[in-house]
From TrEMBL:
Range of residues in the leader sequence: none
Annotated protein name in UniProt: Four helix bundle suffix domain-containing protein
NCBIfam families for this protein: 4helix_suffix (TIGR04258), four helix bundle protein (TIGR02436)
InterPro entries documented for this protein: 23S_rRNA-intervening_sequence, 23S_rRNA_IVS_sf, 4helix_suffix_dom
Entries under SUPFAM superfamilies matching the protein: IVS-encoded protein-like
The species this protein was found in: Prevotella jejuni
Highest taxon listed in the record's lineage: Bacteria
Amino acid sequence: METPFLPQKGNYRNLIAYQKAECIYDITYYFAHHFLERNDRTIDQMVQAARSGKQNIAEGCAASTTSAETEIKLVNVARASLQELLIDYEDYLRVRDLAKWNVNDKNAIIARRVCAKHNDSSFYRNAIQIRTDETIANIAITLIHQEDVILRRYLDYIKEDFLKHGGIREQMTRARIEYRNKQ
């Protein structure tokens, strides 16, 4: 059986990692525009970090057809952007003397369960409308931690796939040899 050297990849919208990142972006957009002062530079920084997390997953997935290296780099950029965003949310809570939920806090446990179950950004856009800034920030923190785990697993998958199938040049060479051997 002929091995394709350009397997079609890149359907990022089906990735849980992308869906979660979209939820984080939507929450952050709402949060930054509702709870930060209009002239605060943090608005742009938070929204851009959330956007970078989402966009780099999409771009990495699209690049995956021809470059595992590019995919890995872009997924790592997404992780780094979301870590920057995490710090912004933690800073927001700390400087305002608001509670950052402890891992064993009742609210944190509930948030982890709910966030693990929902990957549809419309769910969060509706749910946050009636929540406080403290609650929304903690929900975002929960999602970012979950997303970090998902992205680490995704990176492991990319590495494993590369080890099994090789890079594009190896795949092209195998396909060309298979083709020549059939002639």
